[in-house]
């Protein structure tokens, strides 16, 4: 298969030390509620998309790996900690939210539901507010400067965070 017309995706960690590119069709997208995915993500569940049928390239840096079992490793940025990969004998999956545009990568199945936390299903019913509606935090939000890497590839790193050197 020629990759010339293949779909392309990019993404990386929060600080930008680790960046990736995926060429080709993404595989199954899922969320996993298992206790290992909860711990590895520090979250209620971990959204992952398989890239086993595509070409994955680490275009800047590479994830540090933690061997979470005899069969799998989990990759993350050693500088900022963003969870990036789940690597098993049958292929690699990447964290959906680490993609520069995760909005089109919708999960189609849940795994590990025996360990789903009891309040997860009620989150969408909670009251919702925008960031700036949080009046207690707004005093520092108005002059907040983000050091998060932008959602596109950059030629240089560290990215110019507005400082003049
Ligand atoms: Zn990072
Ligand atoms: Zn899991």
Largest sheet: 7 strands, mixed
| Helix proportion range | under 10%
Q: What is the percentage of strand-forming residues?
A: 25-35%
- Rg, rounded, reads 18 Å
Please state the overall shape, judged from the principal axes of the Cα atoms. globular
The succession of helices and strands, N to C, reads EEEHEEEEEEEH
Ends distance: 47 Å
Strand numbers in spatial order across the main sheet? 6-7-8-9-4-3-10
Supply the helix-strand structural class.
mainly beta
Number of helices: 2
Q: How would you state the average pLDDT, rounded?
A: 92
The small molecules bound here are: zinc ion
Unreliable runs, pLDDT <50, ≥5 residues? none
> What is the total tally of β strands?
10
Could you explain the architecture of this structure?
By secondary structure, the protein is mainly β. Helices cover 8% and strands 28% of the residues. The chain is built from two helices and ten strands; from the N terminus they run βββαβββββββα. The chain has helices at 35-41, 135-141, and strands at 8-12, 19-23, 29-32, 46-50, 55-60, 64-67, 73-76, 83-88, 91-95, 109-111. The strands form two sheets. It has a seven-stranded mixed sheet with strand order 6-7-8-9-4-3-10. A hairpin with a 6-residue loop joins strand 1 (8-12) and strand 2. The longest helix has 7 residues, at 35-41. It starts with 7 loop residues before the first strand and ends in a 24-residue tail after the last helix. The model has no long low-confidence stretch (mean pLDDT 92). The chain binds zinc ion (ZN) (2 copies). One zinc ion binds next to helix 1. The site of one zinc ion has 9 residues, from loops.
